[in-house]
């Protein structure tokens, strides 16, 4: 519990699971949504201290021609190197957590949603009252990622292998959205959870 007046729901799921769509549905219902991926992007914008630390740690090779962070290049550097990934996390994670806490303190709502794609990998659950996992079968997950990102199946499987396995994500869920259907079903599932969270936060 972030405060006596705010219940915190942490939303997570694997790549291509539908997290962004679910978070958008929550926003349409008037629920404050804080996306840690968006905060991470803000932290590495030109002129931000985190970007300078990343340059100091990994070199100017991580920048593009305009002096902005080349996220794809940085991802390749840290993807298969646990030590380098840990160095990047030490730069970004404390800043992200501090910004999440700052935004939560400003809220006066029954509950809020914090989107944390790599929840288990980060080892920090933001003191969640509820953990919501969006999930779907791997075959469907791969199909949707290919349609969205134009990646090969080999590339997608490499990304999936680097993330926490599906069973582990499902095991930590207080609430689970099975995203195997269409958008109407996904929206209905989100609306049902919204009503549930309003009831829980009122207790």
Describe, in plain words, how this protein is organized in 3D:
This protein is an alpha/beta fold and 203 residues long. It folds into 2 domains: 1-32 and 110-203, P-loop containing nucleotide triphosphate hydrolases (Rossmann fold), CATH 3.40.50; 39-106, no CATH class. Helices cover 55% and strands 12% of the residues. It contains 10 helices and 5 strands. The protein has helices spanning 19-28, 36-43, 49-58, 71-79, 82-105, 119-122, 138-149, 153-162, 166-171, 183-201, and strands at 7-13, 33-35, 111-115, 130-135, 175-178. The chain has a 5-stranded parallel β-sheet, with helices on both faces. α2 (36-43) crosses α5 (82-105) and α3 packs antiparallel against α5. The longest helix is centred in the middle third of the chain and has 24 residues, at 82-105. The mean pLDDT is 90. ATP binds at residues 16-21. This is Dephospho-CoA kinase. Its EC number is 2.7.1.24.
């Amino acid at each position: 519990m972030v405060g006596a007046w705010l219940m915190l729901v942490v939303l997570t799921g694997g790549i291509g699971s539908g997290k962004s769509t679910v978070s958008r549905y929550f926003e349409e219902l008037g629920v404050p949504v804080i996306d840690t991926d968006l905060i991470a992007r803000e932290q590495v914008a030109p002129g931000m201290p985190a970007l300078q630390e990343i340059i100091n740690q990994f070199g100017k090779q991580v920048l593009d021609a305009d002096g902005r962070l080349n996220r794809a290049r940085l991802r390749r550097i840290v993807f298969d190197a646990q030590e380098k990934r840990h160095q990047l996390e030490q730069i970004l994670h404390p800043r992200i957590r501090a910004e999440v806490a700052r935004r939560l303190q400003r809220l006066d709502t029954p509950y809020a949603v914090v989107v944390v794609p790599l929840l288990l990998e980060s080892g920090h659950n933001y003191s969640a009252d509820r953990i919501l996992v969006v999930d779907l079968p791997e075959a469907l997950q791969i199909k949707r990622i290919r349609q969205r990102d134009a990646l090969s199946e080999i590339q997608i499987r490499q990304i999936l292998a680097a993330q926490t396995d599906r069973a582990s994500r499902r095991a930590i869920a207080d609430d689970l959205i099975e995203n195997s259907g269409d958008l109407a079903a996904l929206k209905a599932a989100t609306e049902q959870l919204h009503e549930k969270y309003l009831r829980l936060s009122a207790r």
